[in-house]
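Shipment paperwork, digital attachment
Item: protein structure file
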Amino acid sequence: MVEGGDAVLEYAREGRHAFLTDQRLQDAVMWRMSNFTEEADQLWKVLARDNPRIDWRVLTKLRQEYHHEYARLRPEDVWEFIDRTLPALMTKLRRARVKGSARATDPRHE
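Attachment content:
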């Protein structure tokens, strides 16, 4: 999940204008965001209790949008999330505690 979010941020380094005008970049970012939200949906039950500062509802809502309302997603709204919300969210995810694990960001190592 962390790797997916980091990939979105890496792609977004090209900036707002590039994202809003380059369909291929939008497709790549949207695909990564779709995967990111799917992973969040699968992991939140394991991580939520030990990580209450992460707004799991936002990720669940995003997953619904990416998987059920994809055609309605507006690139401007996606960019706003990437620019304003994702960096802080990624900081929290990198610090996430995983029960029984020394590796805080990778629940596969429980």
